[in-house]
Structure formats: C-alpha cells, structure tokens
Amino acid sequence: MVSRVIPVENFDLVIFGGTGDLARRKILPGLFRRYRSGQMPAEARIVGAARSALDHDAFRQMVAEAVAEFGGPEKDDAECLKAFLAQIHYVAVDAKGEGGWQALSGLMREGVVRAFYFSVAPSLFGDLAERLHRFNIATPDCRIVVEKPFGHDLATARALNATLATHFKETQIYRIDHYLGKETVQNLMAVRFGNILFEPLWNNHYVDHIQVTVAETVGVDGRGGYYDQSGAMRDMVQNHLMQLLCLIAMEPPSRFDADAVRDEKLKVIRALDPVAADEIVRGQYGSGGKAYRDDAENPASTTECFVAIKAHISNWRWAGVPFYLRTGKKMRARSSEIAVVFKDLGHSIFEGDTARHRNILAIRLQPNEGMDLQVTIKEPGPGGMRLVDVPLDMTFAEALGPDAGEVHDAYERLIMDVIRGNQTLFMRGDEVEAAWAWTDPIISGWDARGDRPRPYEAGSAGPEEAMMLMHRDGRRWREIKG
C-alpha cells in the first residue's frame, strides 16, 4: 500500500515567533518532512519573523539544527535539507512597533497563498493583525493560524474573537488544536461514518459509557508560571478533551466540510449539562518525586494538574450515557485513549458465564496510534465453552505496512490544511466561546466552594477520589498503559 501525497498550491508562510520553541520543535521540522515527501512546491517560501536580530543565514542555521534534533528519520537527507533551507527567509519585526514590517512586505509575492502563523502570546494577536493590514501584507483571501490558549475565559475569548474579526473574516481564521490533526482522531470520523458496523450502535441503546483519557508522565517544570495561572481545566479540558468529546458524540454531518462538521460539534457543546460538584475531581501530584508546588514555585498553589469529570449530554442519542473525562500530569504512563464501552448482553446462553464480557472499542491517540475492538471468543482448547476477551488490533504502523509511510505529526497535516483552505479540523469562533461558556461555571464553582485539589502520588493513576467517581457507578477506569 503506497500513501498518496497531494501537493498543495504555491505559498508564502510567515511564522511569527519563528525562533520560539514551538517553531523549533514542531512547525519547522514538520514543514521539512512535508517538503521531503513532495507535498510542498519547490517555489514555496517560509519566512521566520521574530524580535531577534538575525539574518537569513543565521536563521537557516537555526532551522537546520531544529531539523537535526526533531526532524525524525528524514533529518539525514542532506541534499533535501539544503534545498529546503534555500526556501527559508527571515525578517526581524517589532510586533508592537514599526520595525521590519516594510521588509516583510517586500518579501511577499503576488499570486500565491499567503498564510501567517501566530506562534506568539495571544496578547500580540491584535498588534500583528493590525500591522498586517496597515502595511498591506494581508490579502482578502490570506489565512492566519492562532495557537491556544484562545482566551482565559469566556470574556477574554469573546474579546479576542472581536479583535481578530476587526481585521479578518471567520473563513480566514484557523484556530489550531493539534489533537485534531492526529491520524487516529480523523480515523474516528472514518470509523463512525464510513462503516455500517458502528454507526447504528453509536447511541444510548448500545453504549454503556465512554471514557476519554489524556495522561502525561511529565510535570510542569519549566513552564510552571504559565501553568499555575491556567491549570488542567483551561489547558486541556476546555480545548483538547472537549474536541475529542465533540467528535465522539456529534451527529453525522450532512457532508464532510468545515461548517457542516463544526455545526454538529457546536450542538454537542451546547447540549452538555452543567457539572455538579460531586461529578468533578481535581488533583495535584505530590509525593513520589518533585511536587507540583515545587515545579510551579508556588508553595500555596491550589491549581489543579489533574481533572476527572463525569459529563452528560442532553440529547436523544446520548441521554443516560455518562462521558468520563480525565487528564493529568505525572501519571503512570503517557497515554491518550478514547474507549467506547458497549452494554452487556441482555442474556447469556453460556452456562456458568458469570464474568462480564463487553465489547470495547479503544482508540489510541498516543503512543502507537491505532484502534482495537475487544470481542469475546471461546478460549482455545478442550474443557468446555470457556469465554475469553481478545482484541482485534489495528496498530497503524503494523496494519498499513512500511510502504504506507510513517504516521505524520499533527502539525504537518494541519499546516497543509491551512494552505489548502480546509477549516474542517480547526475550531470556529462560536465553538470556542461555547466551550468556555460550559467551562467557566465549573471553575467559578470550585473557587466559590474553596475546593482544593486532591493529592496524588507521581507515577500513579491519579487521586483515589477519581477512582470513586466511577466505582460508585459500578464502573472502572481502564488501565493507563504506555
């Protein structure tokens, strides 16, 4: 099986914050891999823009070092790297001043797609947007990419949307969430809407509950100042987990295009019930190594780095089906998984079959992207009809074979979608605001109650109270496996 790479149009991509960590780790190495695959035109131009006083050659050297460190197996292709670096340019710009903008304007070409990646703090979005127009760099069909955090709450998200709307149409704004670029997340839509096997069962008649887990082994060391002002609810639940929940729960769109998909996601968010105080658990890693408060350099911190929530969607498809969401730092293993747990059989014909045998569709986002479906079979060998649960495993790297190519980084796919003008995997402004409208009361509720995060041991599965969130319903979290 050979993967089909479709080239994109010729483009100029300007990366504001081009010397920053995200550009070095993800954006620039991802663009190199797309170039090497043949997806980027040879005439495409990538322009780094930042405050640093660099020239083209110094920035190209930085890009070469980033590719060497984060470029993956392709990094050793010296000839390809040389050709890629020839497409790299740099301009020192002052986001709040006048410096560099005329030079940037002079680099832009007519007749190509223009895209601007705002890999900077949200406080600079308005300044960049205003100057792109004042210096006639923005065109009526150009695109801007904005990173999270998209607001700190509903009020700031609305203000940010209003700022961008002053200069750009909604069809030009690409709010990026890299989780939506993962191969498995997109395959979730293919599995649901491309197979008659699953969609008829995707409702409260057959699904007992759904679990969404995003577990990390790292702490917040190195970015404790930011994280202590954000916490897991704002940093992970409001965006990443919310997006996964929407893709699981949404109705089939009328067609596979940006607004049809995002309309259905918005309906899910608006159907979410408020979360009761006893349906949420916050946690902070403590013993078993360096504690969160040490990493955050705030000995009195009450910021959560773990959240578990029991959510409910009030519509005909999902009424009565709980959605259990959890995410945390310093967990047992690095693992992101969606598990659709189907109901028990109404009646078992097998004598002595007292154990519960359930079908579970597990969708792995990381590591080892793939899916497996747990089914019940007869255990091999003599001795009667003994039932055992086994997975039908589809790990992408194994199932698709070496000719299919590697599973690409999410940023690679999403940046190419920006160039194509495809907004399907990007959040719309009303979608972001609806997510904050659901999240804000949860945060204000625990602030009003004076709730404190529950301690948990680093390297564990989280606080005991999170286990009880499911145990009291007669359910159990799936084991966190790396």
Topology diagram in text:
Blueprint (H helix, E strand, L loop, with lengths): L10 E6 L4 H16 L8 E6 L5 H15 L7 H8 L2 E5 L8 H7 L5 E6 L6 H10 L8 E4 L7 H14 L5 E3 L7 H12 L12 E9 L8 H26 L8 H14 L8 E6 L6 H4 L10 E6 L11 E6 L6 E8 L17 E7 L3 E9 L8 E9 H4 L10 H11 L8 H21 L4 E3 L7 H8 L11
Helix pairs in contact: 1-2, 1-12, 5-6, 6-13, 8-9, 8-13, 9-13
Descriptive report:
The chain is of the alpha/beta class and 482 residues long. It has 2 domains: 11-147, Rossmann fold (3-Layer(aba) Sandwich); 180-406 and 427-471, Dihydrodipicolinate Reductase, domain 2. The chain is 35% helix and 19% strand. The protein contains 14 helices and 15 strands. The chain has helices at residues 21-36, 56-70, 78-85, 101-107, 125-134, 154-167, 183-194, 224-249, 258-271, 292-295, 396-399, 410-420, 429-449, 464-471, and strands at 11-16, 45-50, 88-92, 113-118, 143-146, 173-175, 207-215, 280-285, 306-311, 323-328, 335-342, 360-366, 370-378, 387-395, 454-456. The strands form 2 sheets. Strands 14-13-12-11-7-10-9-8-15 form a 9-stranded mixed beta sheet, sandwiched between helices. A 6-stranded parallel beta sheet has the order 3-2-1-4-5-6. Residues 402-406 have low confidence and may be disordered.
